[in-house]
Design goal:
Keywords: Aminoacyl-tRNA synthetase, ATP-binding, Cytoplasm, Ligase, Metal-binding, Nucleotide-binding, Protein biosynthesis, Zinc. This protein has 32 helices and 33 strands. The relative contact order is 0.11. The protein has 946 residues and is of the alpha/beta class. α26 runs antiparallel to α27. Helix content is 40%, strand content 17%. The structure holds zinc ion (ZN).
């Protein structure tokens, strides 16, 4: 028996079946960096339209987690797809380097600045620490295949950047947005610093709630505001006992700072006759809250003897419960009837509403607490007490004075410091603010949102609602590791120096050289005249780190040659509507009057398979490092693309395993194409479009249409769509149809025949395009494929633009519609064959002969394929007959088509495995079919269609 194996064109490629990514990717990375791939991309992109994605800086502390990985991979997919779309899309990664968390780490190592170690050494250590964190994170980002200027990232602690942050402050000051004020801000008594809104988190806390009586100073005057009931309390209508307004508070420690009681102007207030401690008493309460309050006080027997509206009580006076202080009754919009008494104890030092309503009535702050939360020495009764511990003492005093009506514990949601996890207090302190109103910043910012595109589009509402609620932005911090608020203020008037703008530039020039220490080392006399130096002092506060990152449009986009502002897009997690997107918008408007971005894209957070947040205690943390060290970075990247980022992004070991399965489908498809390009030289072997077989042209056309969809999906940042389309192309169009059919032609026709070269030409076009489609997602694999495609080519697929040699089937005799209907017929026949196989009528399709009973239309269509219909159906024989002749044929899902399957009675050809009548009839090759003999000895088989 002759072995015909050597006469077949069997597939062959060096492209490995197994990805082995964890091992192979580092080698590829080494090549990318040895060959300076990123710089090469810049070179080929030179002169093209720019596309600027501005990197939101991660904080330089700790290892990167899966959220960082998602964020950077999405950015990388955008950058790479934009490069493929013909843009010059540089990527300058950045890090946020100043701020409290790093300061805390260094405190842990060295002790507090100014205490165990001098400030300068402390800052140097912070700088060193941040640099090391950057190094660690950078290695992981690079390992994931993210390309950028890793050797020259932007760091907010670069001297140049620090100088430009100061310049941005100068610009904002010039434009009139900077104001100094006393204001209650979230204050961490443990950190000794004001906190940004974004640093506040809510946790449950048990507090003491108390109800306290504030006795009337002039009873007759107070009572004159009430209308008396005429029925039921005749003669006693004015009642008896002390008259008092009752307040309710969950922060007893604020009572020393109590300066007013706020009422709702339109709320109804009741005068209650009752007994307290066995004595007759008259209490003033919001009428809707009387019942719940009385329950709290355990008073069952009471009568409403008079009523009034809050507005009529304005200006009446009561006494502070334990100080000799007159407390006015005032009116405010923030009084509600949800809880309490309707009479709101008001301490402008410790609440925003209190502060604002106090301002209206000209009631200032008292400043009783120092930075560490200790009552100052001038505070009667409580000097030296800590704010966290003083509540019981306040309650004791109130009780002693006979002012307490009720006390109880309550659990409520209370603001905490995100870093130290300790309860925050509101505290009025001198701070620097960017005013939302003074120069119309808020309204300009709101209006400017019209120019910003949001992906997903609900981002706009979110941004608007957060922006509209944003109070003046407190940008000052009392910290060590931060960019200085480099201002001189007058000792007495606290006014800014009239030359502030010029002074800031002088400071910036020094900071450019020496870093921000230049400011801290500076003496006023170094820059100011001798006379001014006597009257002006340096501000020693540092800037909120959100200011640092917020002005990177100024310090980075405007500064770096390869970038520009406004950026085309900012891409961050959806929490940044509140954080970086806001700080960037506000500083963009405050410096230049326009938003620093044209588009905002947000992605969701990562959660486990059950939708839970990742946490060490739940044991559901997926570390990106573990994924790229075991499965490979391409699996992580493929998972990101295959997950809808507009919602929460689910990840688990199981999900990643499934991703690895999908990856294999993509890889195997590429491998099949490459292995069948064996011996194909695109320069000499390509077949002209018009000479290609119809089915091959269909495949190229299909790839072209897919490419249009892929590009459109990338353009709209719909990576999930890219993933699904490409995956379907691999499994349905190629795996389930085209590649299945062409195997026979590839293997059995003559190696240089038109039949085979036509098919190779199609596969060549497809793999050229395919490598590019997947390059933004599975960059390593795409580049690996790229190296294995025959023909002259550039060093990396990442240097390419979309493939342009795909062609359209438009105008072909057997067009798209035609082949689509053939595809449905083939599926129907496959099903019939599968059923027959299940019933053990026969084995594979080549054991079968089929007869298709078709209506006239189908008969004519399928008839066009002639004898090649059997190659399309992958059966040894395929006949067409009119539907009317169908007797025992089975129905199919295709209208007008019935199929009958029978086992072939003929011998199997040794070479092509088709069962043909002529096997054994040809003397020279007794085990071959006729067309195999033609392919082995003759001129070779001619194929027209498939
Ligand atoms: Zn044969």
């Amino acid at each position: 028996m002759t072995d015909y194996k050597h006469t077949l064109n069997l597939p062959e490629t060096d492209f490995p079946m197994r990805g082995n990514l964890a091992k192979r990717e580092p080698d590829m990375l080494k090549r990318w960096y040895d060959e300076e791939l990123y710089e090469e991309i810049r070179k080929v992109s030179e002169g093209r339209d720019k596309f600027i994605l501005h990197d939101g800086p991660p904080y330089a502390n700790g290892d990167i987690h899966i959220g960082h990985a998602v964020n950077k991979i999405i950015k990388d997919m955008i950058i790479k797809s934009k490069t493929l779309s013909g843009f010059d899309a540089p990527y300058v990664p950045g890090w946020d380097c100043h701020g409290l968390p790093i300061e805390h780490k260094v405190e842990g190592m060295l002790g507090k600045a100014g205490d165990k170690v001098d400030f300068k050494t402390f800052r140097a250590k912070c700088r060193q620490y941040a640099a090391k964190q950057v190094d660690g994170q950078r290695e992981d980002f690079k390992r994931m295949g993210i390309l950028g200027t890793w050797d020259k990232p932007y760091l907010t602690m670069d001297f140049q950047t620090e100088a430009d942050i100061i310049r941005a402050l100068g610009k904002i000051t010039d434009n009139g947005h900077l104001v100094k004020g006393y204001k209650p801000v979230y204050w961490s008594v443990v950190g000794g610093s004001a906190l940004a809104e974004a640093e506040v988190e809510y946790q449950e806390k048990t507090s003491t709630q108390i109800d306290v009586r504030y006795a009337a100073l002039d009873e007759a005057d107070l009572l004159s505001a009430f209308d008396y009931e005429t029925d039921g309390c005749e003669g006693k209508e004015r009642g008896e006992g002390e008259v008092a307004a009752v307040i309710w508070t969950t922060t007893p420690w604020t009572l020393p700072s109590s300066q007013a009681i706020t009422l709702g102007a339109d709320l109804g207030y009741a005068l209650i006759q009752c007994e307290v401690n066995g004595q007759p008493a008259r209490l003033i309460l919001g009428e809707q809250l009387v019942e719940s309050a009385m329950q709290r006080y355990g008073i069952e027997d009471y009568t409403i003897i008079a009523r009034t509206l809050g507005a009529r009580l304005e200006g009446k006076r009561v006494a502070h419960p334990f100080y000799n202080r007159e407390i006015p009754l005032i009116l405010g919009d923030h009084v509600t009837t949800d809880a309490g008494t309707g009479c709101v104890h008001t301490a402008p030092d410790h609440g925003v509403d209190d502060f604002n309503v106090g301002k209206k009535y000209d009631i200032g702050t008292l400043n009783y607490l120092d930075d560490a939360g200790i009552f100052r020495s001038n505070v009667e009764l409580f000097a030296g007490e800590h704010v966290y511990k003083v509540d019981p003492k306040v309650v004791d005093v109130v009780t002693e004075k006979g002012r307490l009506l009720a006390q109880a514990k309550m659990v409520h949601s209370y603001p905490h410091c995100w870093r130290t996890k300790t309860p925050l207090i509101f505290r009025a302190t001198p701070q620097w603010f960017i005013s939302m109103e003074k120069e119309g910043l808020l309204s300009t910012a709101m209006k400017s949102l019209d120019t910003v595109k949001f992906t997903p589009d609900w981002g706009r509402n979110r941004m608007e609602s957060m922006l509209s609620q944003s109070p003046d932005w407190c940008i000052s911090r009392q910290r060590t590791w931060g960019v200085p608020i480099a201002l001189f203020i007058h000792k007495e008037t606290e006014e800014l120096h009239p030359e502030t703008s010029a002074l800031i530039e002088q400071v910036a020039l020094r900071v450019e050289q020496e870093g921000m220490d230049a400011w801290f080392d500076l003496q006023p006399a170094d820059l100011l005249s001798a006379e001014d130096a006597e009257h002006y002092v340096k501000v020693t506060d540092t800037l909120d780190v959100w200011f640092d990152s917020g002005v990177t449009h100024y310090s980075v986009l405007d500064r770096r040659e390869e970038l520009r502002s406004p950026a085309d897009i900012y891409v961050e997690g959806s929490d940044q509507h509140r954080g970086w997107f806001q700080s960037s918008l506000k500083t963009g408007i405050a410096t230049k009057g326009i938003p620093p971005y044209k588009q905002l894209l947000t992605h969701g957070f990562t959660v486990d398979a059950n939708g839970r947040k990742m946490s060490k205690s739940l044991g559901n943390v997926i570390a990106p490092q573990k994924v790229f060290k075991s499965l490979g970075a391409d699996i992580l990247r493929l998972w990101v693309s295959a997950t809808d980022y507009t919602a929460e992004m689910t990840v688990s070991d199981e999900i990643l395993k499934r991703t690895a399965d999908s990856y294999r489908r993509i890889r195997n498809t590429a491998r099949f194409l490459l292995s069948n390009l064996n011996g194909f030289n695109p320069e000499t072997d390509s077949v002209a479009w018009e000479d290609m077989l119809s089915l091959d042209r269909w495949a190229v056309d299909r790839a072209m249409r897919l490419q249009e969809e892929v590009i459109e999906s990338y353009d709209s940042y719909n990576f999930l769509n890219v993933y699904q389309k490409v995956h379907n192309f691999c499994s349905l169009d190629l795996g389930g149809f085209y590649l299945d059919i062409i195997k026979d032609r590839q293997y059995t026709t003559q190696s240089d025949s038109l039949a085979r070269r036509s098919c190779q030409t199609a596969m060549f076009h497809i793999i050229e395009a395919f490598a590019r489609w997947i390059a933004p997602v599975t960059s390593f694999t795409a580049d690996e494929i790229w190296q294995a495609i025959p023909g002259q080519r550039s060093k990396s697929v990442l240097l390419e633009t979309w493939y342009e040699d795909l062609k359209s089937l438009e105008g072909d005799e057997l067009g798209r519609e035609y082949w689509n209907s053939v595809m449905t017929v083939k599926h129907a026949v496959n099903k019939a064959l599968e059923d027959a196989r299940k019933e053990s009528v026969m084995g594979g399709g080549l054991e079968a002969e089929v007869t298709l009973f078709a209506n006239d239309e189908l008969l004519e269509a399928l008839g066009k394929l002639g004898d090649e219909l059997r190659f399309v159906l992958i059966t040894s024989q395929a006949e067409l007959k009119p539907l009317s002749e169908a007797t025992d044929a089975v129905d199919t899902d295709v209208e007008g088509l019935k199929v009958s399957v029978r086992k072939s009675a003929h011998e199997k050809c040794d070479r092509c495995w088709h069962r043909r009548e002529d096997v054994g009839t040809i003397e020279t090759h007794t085990t071959l079919c006729g067309r195999c003999v033609e392919n082995v000895d003759g001129k070779g088989e001619i194929r027209q269609f498939a």
